[in-house]
Amino acid sequence: MRHLLLCALWLPALAAADIYRWTDAQGGVHFGERPERGATQVEVKPQVVERDAATRAREERLERLQEARRQEQAQASADTAQRLAKREQSCRQLRNQLASIGGDRRYFSRDSKGEAHYYSSAEIDAARRTLSEQVASHCS
What is the pLDDT of residues 5-28, one digit of tens each? Predict the structure, then answer.
């Protein structure tokens, strides 16, 4: 923690460091942070880079592509959520049907004439097995 604090205190001083330029006896040009004999201070200006029209167009195309990808991902997430909601609803219905087939109740259906057809215990067991298999395969 102490080192971090020390770095934070020295950071402004490093950013404001002066740059000096001098020429040695052999004619070589040198740059440094400490002034040497005969050194002159050099003003360093940050370089501003202007982007040409082709670069700006490329950046705009990239931004449109990224936006299209974001929209595709959002649509895929919405589709997945909708599919999961439908699956959960279907599973809830299957579980409710399975829970309703129980006990000593008698089950029947009406034919086209309106007469009741009562299910045998074997038919009820078969329906229970079918519903259990559907719940196991679709709702796990």
Answer: 455 555 455 456 789 998 888 989
